[in-house]
Amino acid sequence: MGYLSMAFGLPLFLLWSLFSSAHAATFEIRNNCPYTVWAAASPGGGRRLNSKQQWTLNVAAGTKMARIWGRTKCNFDGSGRGHCETGDCGGVLQCKGWGVPPNTLAEYALNQFGNLDFFDISLVDGFNIPMDFRPTRSPSGKCRPISCTADINGQCPNPLRTRGGCHNPCTVFKTQEYCCTQGPCGPTNYSRFFKERCRDAYSYPQDDPTSTFTCPGGTNYRVTFCPNGSPHFPLEMYGESDAE
Fold first, then answer.
1. Closest Cα to residue 48, out of 35, 34, 38?
2. pTM of this prediction?
3. Domains assigned to the chain
4. From which residue to which does the signal peptide run (predicted)?
């Protein structure tokens, strides 16, 4: 009996399950930092990750405009309400929306044009934690990891400095030159600061040609905070006391 004949003999809910899961992706989120990171995902929610802990997300095929980021110096009460110094998402542990800059972003869209996954690391919302974003299993093996591990917080230009991170200039100056909201725009000295240190990452909103990467649909991924152990992260993060 052929595959289609067998398939059509299955209940509809089983058929839907088979086809909808065919290209779903698994995201493994690891904290390699020597301090606690409160991982956040849209879709997905949030999870406290102590050093060396990880969190696995299963993301539906066709998901788009999705992102993963890390939050730092958070305090949440028993109901999951509180605040984070960077990456806060409405004062809740389980994020329903996007985080407040500055936050290093892993962005992705699954099974898009040509059944390709599109993924990137973005500094358009600034930088707070070093990050690595890589495929762990790909149907073709023809895609590569990307990362942003430079000491951006330590080298951040003075106008962009903020507690726990480094703002992108759009957040600070809110002008067309940096935000690109009213038409085409090009690189600036501030975007070059980010690009020179993180070649793989988006450095300004229209940086697409050099900053968007693809893998075949059905690829699984890993996002790692502090992939190199983050030797340059601000010393104030070490020995901090965290609360759930």
1. 38
2. 0.85
3. 25-225 (2.60.110.10)
4. 1-24
